[in-house]
Amino acid sequence: MSWDELTDRLMDSGALSADWEEIFRALPRDRFMPTRIYHDGEWIDRATGPSRWSELACSDLPLVTQLYEGTDTPSSSSSMPTVVATMLRHLDAADGMRVLEVGTGTGWTAGLLSRRLGAVNVVSIEVDAALAADARARLGALGLRPRVVVGDGMLGHPAGAPFQRLHLTAAVQQLPAALIEQCEPGAVILAPYGTAFCNGALARLTVAADGKSASGPFVADVAFMWVRNQRPCSGAFDIEDVRYSRSEIDPATIADNTDASFAIGLRMPYLFRQSIWASYDRYGTGRFEIWDGVSYAHCRLADWQGEHAVSQSGPRNLWDEVTAAYRWWQRHGGPDLSRLGLTVTTAGEHRAWLDDPNHVMR
Q1: What top-level class of enzyme does the UniProt entry assign (predicted)?
Q2: Nearest CA to 122 among 99, 89, 145, 150?
Q3: Which of 1, 83, 192, 232 is deepest in the core (most CB within 10 A)?
């Protein structure tokens, strides 16, 4: 598929808005991709596999561009074009607005913003000095020279403030006060947001008139790599004094439902989960595990109504709590992401809400 064909698809789907079409076509993603892409467990090198490299660069896929050293865990990537187009549409940046981007990555989004708003109005922060240097070189080769700063994006860039738009390209569990404080009243903050239980959704927050808070709805289902200093750490726990019971709910209704999982995560933000195949279990079944670093629970995916389907240990009955959170979600009509929102204050409060900022989720 060519870049123009992909752009046509994005226009047809509504992901890409008309005001971004010309710029999107003029700055294809391959102009910003490194020579090596990590995909399906292997590195694709442009020099040795040019056709495959070009195919991936023009695809509607997220592409890993860097791994944490000694692991196969991604540390940087190029987001799928559908997501980039969707975020630009929700950012709603008008000509001449000043934008702060947190997470330069390959430099592609910074390039799109620079072409639209003027490079003088774009500041992009990247924590990795090598990535920043590479992005700066790619941008410069195309005649685009936004300010690319090496630093911790969670601290923002006070020297360039105030900003009218703030755009994060990595997921957060906590939005720092510094970022709100560097925005003008009425500014829009677009941030991938999630919890350890579910990552996550795209929050579109508007900064209040007094500059002391930002609030708004979740507008899209997205999942991004975490900001490096906010990666969830599950901790260790011991499984002892196990309590057995039946389950009131089918765990698949949570495991397979992003809306339910996200709502549960907002109510229980420090709870971890995973679905695994427990071959050592005498039932030989998959199970849904949850833990908080101290307490642990799991529910078998098959025979979930069985007498010993649920196992819970530690000071909390986590499966009971998750069941109660799921029942809350059901009672409120099974709201999708668009009915949920977030308010963040410069004092550090994060209040998730349903339908209205005054209807805080408890």
Answers
A1: transferase
A2: 99
A3: 192
The yes-or-no verdict on residue 264 having pLDDT over 60 is: yes
**Structure tokens belonging to residue 290:** 């949850």
Q: Exposed, middle or buried: residue 175 (CB in 10 Å: 0-12, 13-18, 19+)?
A: buried
Classify 209 as helix, strand or coil.
Answer: coil
Rounded to 5°, angle at Cα 169 from 176 and 269? 50
Q: Is 54 a catalytic residue?
A: no
Q: 272 vs 239, which has greater pLDDT?
A: 272
Exposed/middle/buried for residue 361 (C-beta within 10 Å: 0-12, 13-18, 19+): middle
Angle at the Cα of 92 (from 206 to 80), degrees rounded to 5? 105
Catalytic residue from among 79, 215, 247, 295: 79
Please state whether beta strands 99-102 and 163-168 pair in parallel, antiparallel, or not at all (unpaired): parallel
For residue 283, name the pLDDT band (cuts at 50, 70, 90): low
DSSP 106-137: TSHHHHHHHHHH-GGGEEEEES-HHHHHHHHH
Structure tokens at 349: 């409060």
For residues 323 and 181, is the Cβ–Cβ distance under 8 A? no
Q: Residue 22: helix, strand or coil by DSSP?
A: helix
Given a contact cutoff of 8 angstroms between Cβ atoms, the answer to whether 109 and 144 are in contact is no
Cα separation of the two ends of the chain: 47
pTM, two decimal places: 0.92
Phi, psi angles (nearest 5°) of residue 131: -65, -40
For residue 155 the two structure tokens come to: 């601290």
- According to DSSP, residue 226 is labeled B
Q: Residues 164-218: pLDDT tens digits?
A: 999 999 999 999 999 999 999 999 999 999 999 998 899 999 999 999 999 999 9
User: pLDDT of 69-91, one tens digit each?
Assistant: 888 888 899 999 999 999 999 99
> 247-272: string of b/e by CB count within 10 Å (b at 16+)?
bebebeebbebebbbbbbbbbbbebb
